[in-house]
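Key result, reporting period 2: structure in, sequence out.
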């Protein structure tokens, strides 16, 4: 597959990620496979030092698997953010009181 073939393949794929639709595992692996081939070609063609092995291949099974984030995790993060905001507001109020007390005693 030449670079022109890559571009025509890339442009033929629907851009579902742009429209908020999920990208399938197969689409993601295909994109990473093509990215690997481009990187391999660049390294083999332009590297000044050691070149990649000629039999180097992409292995999709070596990719880390993503797990779904639970909705409760989002709620937990929102709770942490709420508590942080309350803490900052309480600290700002305490600092304002301390400044007033300091100015009154001067």
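The corresponding designed sequence is given below.
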């Amino acid at each position: 597959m030449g670079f022109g073939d890559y571009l025509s393949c890339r442009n033929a794929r629907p851009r579902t990620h742009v429209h908020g639709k999920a990208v399938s595992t197969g689409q993601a692996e295909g994109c990473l496979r093509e990215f690997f081939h481009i990187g391999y070609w660049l390294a083999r063609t332009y590297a000044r030092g050691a070149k990649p092995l000629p039999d180097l291949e992409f292995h999709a099974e070596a990719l880390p698997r993503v797990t779904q984030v639970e909705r409760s995790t989002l709620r937990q993060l929102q709770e942490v953010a709420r508590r942080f905001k309350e803490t900052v507001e309480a600290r700002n109020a305490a600092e304002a009181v301390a400044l007033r007390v300091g100015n009154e005693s001067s």
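The CA atoms of residues 20 and 92 lie 39 Å apart. The chain has two domains: 1-65, 67-106. This case is discussed further under Risks and Mitigation.
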